[in-house]
Amino acid sequence: MRIRDTGDLWWKSAVIYCLDVETYMDWDDDGIGDLPGLVQRIDHLAELGVTCLWLMPFYPTADRDDGYDITDYYGVDPRLGDAGDLVELIRTAHDRGIRVIADLVVNHTSDRHPWFRSARRSKDSPYRDWYVWREDAPPDTSKEVVFPDKEDGIWTYDDQAEAWYRHRFYRHQPDLNTANPQVRDAIAKVVGYWAQMGLDGFRVDAVPFFLADAHKGKGDDVDHPHEFLQQLRAFLSRRTGASILMGEVNLPYEQQRTFFGDHTGDGKHEGAELNLQFDFVLMQQMYLALARQDAGPIADTLRTRPEIPHDAQWATFVRNHDELTLDKLSDDERQEVFDAFGPDKDMQLYDRGLRRRLPPMLEGDPRRVRMVYSLLFSLPGTPVLFYGEEIGMGENLAAEGRLAVRTPMQWTSGKNGGFSQAAASRLSGPVTEGAFAPEHVNVSDQRRDPDSLLNFVQKLARRYRESPELGWTTRVEILDQPHAAVLAHRSTWQDASMVALHNLGSEAVRVPLHLDDAGAGTRLIDLLEDDDRTTDDQGRVEIELDGYGCRWLRVVHPGSRRML
To answer: I want to staple 16 with a disulfide (CB 3.0 to 4.6 A). Which of 52, 62, 357, 494 is the partner?
Structure first.
């Protein structure tokens, strides 16, 4: 492998940024964000260091689940613009060196989708078997629902169809029968269409659900469900070789391996399914570690992370657009995180997660916020940012459920945070208020402040892109040191090596390190501050670390030709 090979597998060292067009920038001032507005803000993303833009659903929708209830897979929601606007966005992003991916929501449709409207009208409809039905009354499925505050089972009786249809999510989102070859062909057509329009891949929603279909109707194929994912990946690669599938797979590590295409457990071969998977396990352990101010949960998780195929990657994140799920923690561990970061019931959701953003959870402490984002970018994997994280936006708990973290982007200190000139009552969501309101947190002010969080995240993105070992290391090394609050880890790839130190505690410490391959003259170049160190002839060195401090130390041996 050579450094030029990192461009072929670009997703292993990308900086991904997720946004909802509806809440990002309203250019026609009707209260709803739109594609022309996003185009006007592409340079913000380019300056931030974003290399891949992930769009939440922009398709026509019944708008009962923030766009995830799709009524037409081939269209653009007219509130956001039209297909021409989308092409302009993709073209402008590509000009700035930013790839564009979009949500692929194929576990279900809206109940207003023409497919389902036809399916419910008659058993003879050509679309009847595109959904999952049963004639007899279902058993109790209350433990299988995804949204326990809204649904009490995953089957709903339809009077028109005279049958029960399955919906793992909301009842207005009937499940597609993805075991049906016709449905698989239709999904491939959707993928091919948007790839032809210029998209560089997809974030695949709810992967385990749509692969675990058990309808077993006439002509269905469910004996080898992963073959569908393999076929979809192969189809997309044939159409556009550099496109990706980034999957939402919230499962234990050993089960996640199979979604990379590693069905033997050796982690050695090329992947054949998802290119990236979100590391939900590590994210949840990170919040437990923050609550305890003890780095142990992160270190233990990194040690147990399985080796994955060469062309696969973990997508690391602090926050996403859903609730901050803590479902993989034990009940006691989850309660620890609730007590630390969301003690009020109104801050919690579905008894498994939090509907908060990071800065309010950390009481706005800039040291802790910066330390967490430094940790994100230094973890082996591909960092994914949710819009507004770069400036430290907060949530609005007055909004319902998950919408608390999907408030309008805050561009200025002016009306509606510069998102729109429309009346507040017409906005796509309520603007955040209080200590994290636009007058205190916005892009415009932070662009002019060299010490702002925005400028710090820009530096992190730049340093990450300059350090391929962070995305390409095959196994992170946890370094021995005596402080429970400190995570010391080392990532190495070819001749590139980085030591990252993060103090999850409030007390300053001195961290003794021993690098086996270092000796007299080995330099540790600090990439975040102007404070370099040199190891002694036994490879030892001590590093001062402030409370909630962070250091990125590039290991430079004598004779190295790496840029410093």
So the answer is: 52
pLDDT of residue 400: 94
Q: How far is CA 248 from CA 197, 264, 302, 356, in A?
A: 23, 21, 20, 20
3-state secondary structure of 299: helix
Cα–Cα dist 29/44, whole Å: 20
Amino acid found at 240: T
Closest CA to 545 of 475, 488, 474, 473: 488
Q: Is 124 exposed, middle or buried (0-12, 13-18, 19+ CB in 10 A)?
A: exposed
Which of 226-235, 258-267, 407-416, 438-447 has the least mean pLDDT? 258-267
Dist CA 218 CA 226 (whole Å): 19
Residues 427-474: tens digit of each pLDDT: 999 999 999 999 999 999 999 999 999 999 999 999 999 999 999 998
Beta bridge partners of 513: 541
Residues 6 or more apart from 420 whose CB is under 8 A from it?
A: 26, 29, 30, 31, 32, 33, 408, 426, 427
Work out whether strand 496-503 and strand 486-493 pair parallel, antiparallel, or are unpaired: antiparallel
Q: What angle do CA 6, 9, 10 make, to 5 degrees?
A: 75
The pLDDT value recorded for residue 1 is: 52
Q: Decide: 106 and 210 in contact? Cβ < 8 Å.
A: yes
Q: Given the DSSP bridges, would you call strands 348-349 and 353-354 parallel, antiparallel or unpaired?
A: antiparallel
Only one residue has tokens 């608390």, namely 404
Sheet with 163-166, edge to edge strand ranges: 133-134, 163-166, 155-158
Closest to 128 measured CA to CA, from 117, 137, 119, 116: 119
Strands (E), 152-290: 155-158, 163-166, 201-204, 244-247, 276-278
82 tagged catalytic:
no
pLDDT tens, residue by residue, 51-106? 999 999 999 999 999 999 999 999 999 999 999 999 999 999 999 999 999 999 99
CA of residue 501 relative to chain centroid, distance: 24
CB atoms within 10 A of CB 27: 17
Is residue 488 within 8 A of residue 511, CB to CB? The reply is yes
Dist. CA 123–CA 101, nearest whole Å: 37
Average pLDDT over residues 2-27: 92
Rounded mean pLDDT, 132-152: 94
DSSP 308: -
Q: Are residues 270 and 462 in contact, defined by beta-carbon separation less than 8 angstroms?
A: no
pTM, rounded to two decimals: 0.97
Give the separation between CA 200 and CA 94, rounded to whole angstroms. Answer: 10
Strand pairing partners for 155? Answer: 166
CA quadruple 467, 472, 473, 475: dihedral, nearest 10: 150
Looking at 342-390, list the stretches that DSSP marks H as alpha helix, in order from N- to C-terminal side: 358-361, 366-378
Catalytic residue, candidates 26, 69, 205, 279 = 205
pLDDT at 2 over 80: no
Active site residue 213: no
Place of tokens 């352990």: 285
CA distance 456 to 374: 9
Which one of the listed residues 66, 69, 200, 248 is annotated catalytic? 248
Residue 152 amino acid letter: D
